[in-house]
Amino acid sequence: MYFWNTNELSQNIKISKLSDNDWKNYYLAMSIVGMLGLYLTALSPRENTMALLVEAISMIGILIFGISITFKTHKTNDKNVASYISKMVALSFPISIKFLVLSFGFGFILAAAQATNTFATLDSEWSITAMTVTFQALIFWRLNIHLQAINT
Predict the structure, then answer these.
(1) Residue pair 146/75 in contact by the 8 Å Cβ criterion
(2) Where are the alpha helices (H) located in 44-120, listed in sequence order?
């Protein structure tokens, strides 16, 4: 199971090297990461509802666009449409781990800025919104890159 190396994972998917148990493990790991994400966001509730609304609308738009683009890329050479979900889950896991590490770095910088009163609370809310939306778009971009690599 790959926690970081999405290029190697893409190659193993391409040559059908993953077992059914591997697919299950990626689904399980991604489910755990998703659940942890929900609980971590509950630890720090958002105060600015406008920033949260903009983020939610943006995330829905990126989700619709990202899934449409990656599904189109998947269908280019792979006629097995059902394998799209398993590829997305498996590839999402190491990509999400990378962005989780990056978001911790961003969080530490944001916390340091808030501690020195460099950032107002309102600015930090909008920074979190910008970071979240950007990371979501980048995740779909990386997923699409790896699906293209699988199809070549």
Answers:
(1) no
(2) 49-75, 83-115
Residue 42 is predicted with a pLDDT of 65
- 3-class DSSP state of 59: helix
C-alpha 100/C-alpha 72 separation (Å) is: 27
Do the Cβ atoms of 91 and 6 come closer than 8 Å?
A: yes
Cα–Cα distance for residue pair 10/62, rounded to 1 Å: 23
| Least confident window among 46-55, 78-87, 103-112 | 78-87
Average pLDDT of the chain is 83
Give the CA angle between residues 80, 81, 83 to the nearest 5°. 75
Other beta carbons within 10 Å of 83:
15
Integer Cα distance of 123 and 125 in angstroms = 5
Torsion of CA 90, 93, 95, 100, to 10 degrees: 170
DSSP run (H or E) holding 29: helix 20-43
pLDDT for 93-140, tens place per residue?
A: 899 889 889 988 888 887 787 777 766 655 777 888 888 899 999 999
